[in-house]
Amino acid sequence: MTKLRTATMTLGVTLLLAAVGVATNALSGAASPRAHQAGAAAGQGNIAGRVNFSGKPPQLRPIVMTNDPVCASEQDGTVLPEDGRVNANGTLPNAFVYISKGGGSVPAAVAPSTTVTMTQKGCRYVPHVLGIQVGQRLEVDSEDPTTHNIHVSPKTGHDWNVSQQPGSNPVTTKFAHAEIMVPVHCNVHPWMQAYIGVVTNPYFAVTGADGSFTIKGLPPGDYTLSIWTATFGTQERQVTVRAGETATADFTFESK
To answer: Which of 88, 197, 207, 233 could form a disulfide with 131 if both were Cys (CB 3.0 to 4.6 A apart)?
Structure first.
């Protein structure tokens, strides 16, 4: 009887351990798809490049701000326009780079909750070129102790023209349609100009003082990469993005 009781207990423990093992394996199996999905989400690529300039840079004329003593007093030396500038390393700043067409599975973009800011500083728009998504909030503020006039002129949608007194609240708006590029100027200070690239996805960049750009997090696929400049025109090229890799796309603009 004792041997039978012992055998029965041993069998019970064995069955219990087997059941625990099955449950553990089942839980491990349930976790595998989640790990696979995380890997798929990380399976993205980047595009990086440089916007070069070839030839003699344009001769830029200094901006004259004497019609507004406040603007003139805020300057330290000669002020040159942003349009037509060439960096010291032979590249272009203020070039807007964006995905204009995509063969990859670019997800439907939802307008970000973050706000894009343009500041009137030293009687200039800062930044001179910026990108924003359709439906995203744009805020225009001022650090200048003088009156400005913000005149935004999209080809499609509402043209708006707002005066902004020193110390007043920022002016806000949203764009309902994509457009490359939306011009901005000040009716009070004619030298004040800026450009806004309104796009439907987050895949864009603006070149800076070294002429480089990087667009991150693209799904693998074939894309048309386009570039806009205020002075030297536009270009585009086909780029293939592979998961875990950075595709290189350099551009060269020539003097006109």
So the answer is: 197
Residue 241's domain spans which residues? 45-254
For residue range 54-79, list pLDDT tens digits in order.
999 999 999 999 999 999 999 988 99
Query: Which residue stretches of the chain are H helix?
Result: 2-41, 69-73
Write down the pTM of the prediction: 0.82
Among the residue ranges 69-83, 98-112, 152-166, 240-254, the one predicted with the least confidence is 98-112
In this structure, are residues 255 and 57 in contact, taking their beta carbons and an 8 Å threshold?
yes
Which amino acid would we find at residue 8? Answer: T
Q: What is the CA radius of gyration of the chain?
A: 28
SS (H, E, C) 39-98: HHHCCCEEEEEEEEEECCCCCCCCCCCCCCHHHHHCCCCCCCCCCCCCCCCCECCCCEEE
Q: How far is CA 111 from the centre of its chain?
A: 12
Are 88 and 213 members of one domain? yes
Judgement on whether residues 179 and 126 belong to the same structural domain of the protein: yes
Residues 131, 144: one domain?
yes
